[in-house]
Amino acid sequence: MLKTTVLLERRRIFDKAVREKTYGRMRMALYQLAPSLVVQSTVLNGRLMGCYDAQLEAITIDRSMPLDDKKCTLIHELGHWVFDDDSQPPYGAKRERATRKLTASTLIRAEDYRQAELMYEGDMFLMANDLGVNPDIITDYQKYVIPTLIGTKRRELSCVNAY
């Protein structure tokens, strides 16, 4: 496991790179921000959209995907890099959840999600299209992000009621 200072630096780089908003600009930013991180693309087999190799410090993205999917996948794989995660036991499942939550919360703002959910009456595919993400990101947002938002709102309300 990497030292805390390295992990904090990786998170700072992540936050800067994802501000770029498009796949191409994120990749270009990463060349400057994290020169030791290799980001490459190739045609991957099956349903694999991307992968991170911690030993090589390399991210591979399936080049045959649409740009929105590449963006989502790059952010997801960057999450693995931030957490220094090779997704191997014993921590694999926990880190995968953390990476999915980071990805969904990075790609979707709460207000945008609420608006899309109302506009499209919860239709996941229409919401994903409107938000520029793939449907898996919507599922992850619902599963990992919304419960924490609800918990935050409850804590805020309980603080208000205490006074």
Label this structure with key terms.
3 strands, disordered C terminus, about 10% strand, Zincin-like, 3-stranded mixed beta sheet, 7 helices, 2 domains, mainly alpha, about 160 residues, globular
What's a quick, concise take on this entry?
63% of the residues lie in helices and 9% in strands. By secondary structure, it is mostly helical.
Q: If you had to describe this structure to a student in words, what would you say it looks like?
A:
The model is unreliable at 154-163 (pLDDT under 50). It is globular and about 45 Å long. The chain has seven helices and three strands, in the order ααβββααααα. It has helices spanning 4-18, 23-33, 67-82, 92-107, 110-119, 124-131, 135-161, and strands at 38-42, 50-53, 58-62. It folds into two domains: 1-86, 2-Layer Sandwich (Zincin-like), CATH 3.30.2010; 108-163. The termini are far apart. With 163 residues, the protein is mainly alpha-helical. It has a three-stranded mixed beta sheet, with helices on one face.
